[in-house]
């Protein structure tokens, strides 16, 4: 069968190498980051020389190259150590063990990670499949003991990279102890270096002084890219991913400008935008990515971002948003707080009938509703009819949110979307 017979084929193909546009692609070159790379290279240098490793804390907004720079230096370090070891006598060989943990992957049901969960993760990275431990059922001290035992069975330097380290929350025992494990006497055969990576500025600010002392030996800030830097990064990516005639200077400039404006200089957003724009251009049979494709791609990404941020809300806020979605569909917004509470109570009863937990009081719900206003999902109107006329609040979705996005978020959250008819609802 030729492509012409397939419903999946497009008439034109603009993407030459799709993997280059994927999230986990590590570029061969890190652009526009010379200063930061110099600083970061110094952190890895002692490891290459077989000296005690340093600890470091990397921070900066999302999509600004923290992970990419770390992967790039890790690959170089491993390759260079391998080359060096080929040419030196046995006793001078450098032993490096690297454990990469994304703390986001070790969250429990309530979206929280703890030092305990990360310690379980480290143990399981070091053990083979049949010998792994579960994330529950061990006393915390037992898990730490097992982890240090596993680490101590290695030799040389152990570099533990904790990506999204902020997910570790308040329980930061590990962040304090792991970098100092040799001084404390938990390990004796190895030297441990810890690199924490975070895009949460509050987490960095709130780190306890003792964690700051041990983990933040070197702090490296990754600032956001400006539109010109985004253009350089994007052009290099487009050169590898797209056919030469598929894009021009306007494609690169517009994708970069939009990512700069709307995603605070995130290279991830710029690359996603380029990929979606190329797909839309292909679907439209265009042999060049043009501004309308890019604008449509930008709208698609914005839509998806809002759905993702709704998915991140806790159950109570999801129920309030569902109540507002039904009120909106029934033409009943803006709705007074009492009406939103009645609708919300119905939603809770529908979803929580099995657990037996009831809805929050109106005041309790209002606290969550205020957070939704703060996050930009909901818009509240203050009605004031003057003396004797009364004062009250009315709520509706902000301009960026639609009932369909709430529905999509429920589905992404694996929560069934139960249809509800709130047309006859009273205040
Ligand atoms: N300087 C750069 N040169 C080339 N590619 C880059 C550069 N900076 C970022 N990228 C690319 O942009 C995307 C996002 O970068 P990365 O994952 O490193 O961001 P991050 O700062 O770790 O974000 P987060 O905090 O959300 O994890 C990746 O595809 C990465 O390869």
TrEMBL record:
Q: Does the keyword Cell division apply?
A: yes
- Record's NCBIfam families? orc1/cdc6 family replication initiation protein
What family does the entry list? Answer: Belongs to the CDC6/cdc18 family.
Q: Which residues form a coiled coil?
A: none
- InterPro entries, A to Z: AAA+_ATPase (IPR003593), AAA_22 (IPR049945), Cdc6_C (IPR015163), Cdc6_lid (IPR055237), ORC1/CDC6 (IPR050311), Orc1/Cdc6_arc (IPR014277), P-loop_NTPase (IPR027417), WH-like_DNA-bd_sf (IPR036388)
General function of this protein: Involved in regulation of DNA replication.
Specify the Cdc6 C-terminal domain's residue ranges: 321-410
* Entries under Pfam families matching the protein: AAA_22, Cdc6_lid, WHD_Cdc6
Return the protein name: ORC1-type DNA replication protein
């Amino acid at each position: 069968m030729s492509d012409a017979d397939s419903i999946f084929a497009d008439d034109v193909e603009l993407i030459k190498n799709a993997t280059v546009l994927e999230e986990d692609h590590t570029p061969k070159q890190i652009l526009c980051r010379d200063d930061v790379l110099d600083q970061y290279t110094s952190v890895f240098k002692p490891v290459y020389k077989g000296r005690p490793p340093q600890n470091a804390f990397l921070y900066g907004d999302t999509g600004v190259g923290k992970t990419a720079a770390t992967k790039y230096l890790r690959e170089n370090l491993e390759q260079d150590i391998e080359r060096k070891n080929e040419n030196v006598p046995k006793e001078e060989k450098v032993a490096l063990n690297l454990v990469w943990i994304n703390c986001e992957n070790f969250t429990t049901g309530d979206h929280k990670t703890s030092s305990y969960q990360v310690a379980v993760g480290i143990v399981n990275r070091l053990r083979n499949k049949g010998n792994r431990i579960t994330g529950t059922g061990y006393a915390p001290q037992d898990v730490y003991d097992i982890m240090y035992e596993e680490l101590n069975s290695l030799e040389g330097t152990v570099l533990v990279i904790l990506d999204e380290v902020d997910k570790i929350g308040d329980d930061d025992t590990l962040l304090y102890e792991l970098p100092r494990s040799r001084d404390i006497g938990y390990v004796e055969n190895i030297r441990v270096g810890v690199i924490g990576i975070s895009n949460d500025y509050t987490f960095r600010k709130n780190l306890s002084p003792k964690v700051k002392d041990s983990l933040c030996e070197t702090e490296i800030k990754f600032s956001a890219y400006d539109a010109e830097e985004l253009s350089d990064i994007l052009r290099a990516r487009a050169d590898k991913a797209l056919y030469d005639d598929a894009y021009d200077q306007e494609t690169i400039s517009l994708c970069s400008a939009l990512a700069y404006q709307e995603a605070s200089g995130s290279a991830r957003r710029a690359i996603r935008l380029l990929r979606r724009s190329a797909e839309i251009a292909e679907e439209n049979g265009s042999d060049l990515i043009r501004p309308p494709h890019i604008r449509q791609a930008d709208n698609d990404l914005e839509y998806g971002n809002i759905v993702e941020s709704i998915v991140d809300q806790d159950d109570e806020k999801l129920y309030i948003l569902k109540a507002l979605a039904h009120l909106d569909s029934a033409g009943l917004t803006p709705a007074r707080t009492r009406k939103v509470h009645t609708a919300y109570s119905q939603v809770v009863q529908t979803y929580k009938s099995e657990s037996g937990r009831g809805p929050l009081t109106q005041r309790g719900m209002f606290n969550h509703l205020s957070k939704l206003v703060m996050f930009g999902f909901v818009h509240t109107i203050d009605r004031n009819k003057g003396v004797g006329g009364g004062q009250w609040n009315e709520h509706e979705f902000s301009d960026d949110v639609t009932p369909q996005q709430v529905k999509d978020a429920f589905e992404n959250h694996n929560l069934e979307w139960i249809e509800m008819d709130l047309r006859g609802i009273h205040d």
